[in-house]
What we know:
This protein is an all-alpha fold and 193 residues long. It has helices spanning 4-28, 39-70, 75-86, 98-106, 112-119, 123-142, 159-188. 70% of the residues lie in helices and 0% in strands.
Amino acid sequence: MPSKSLQLWAKARATTLDEIEAAHQAVGGSRRGRRYATQQLNQAYTVMLMSQFQGFCRDLHSEAVDHLVAAVLPTSVSSVLRPVLTENRALDRGNANSSSLGSDFGRLGLSFWQEVKATDARAEKWQQRLDQLNDWRNAIAHQSFGKLLRAGSRPVVSLQQVREWRNACKGLARSFDRVIGVHLGSMVGNPPW
């Protein structure tokens, strides 16, 4: 059974993202071709996708910390452990990028990206797409496209590109869930989900 975080990702968070897809269809139609009126929707979809994925990652980290802390006795020790695992968590103050994910989940005692890549051969490509998504999210949010564009070109994000990023996030979410679940199960003797 998946974590509560993955269940939320697959249901409520996916529904939120599906609503942007539906808005895109309503504005741009379903036929091929350039639709400049949808560019703002594509950019909004990019930012929303990143925020929903970051929310999933933060939820998963919190859920993992809860499971680990609950297994520690005496409880006076567990109350000291929680802040150590969550204080200055990168996911609370910045984007869910490769570095912040590796740092935050690494606090749980694993080589996070190494384990994720060992569970699925596609994880390397998904990680690259996540980093690209983060670059575009930051460029859109801060209206600073200089690093992403050639001189004179426009900041264009296609619906197809956002869908590829979303598929990468879906794959990473499943892999993160599996890796963290197995790791915590081996640490405390019972799987968290």
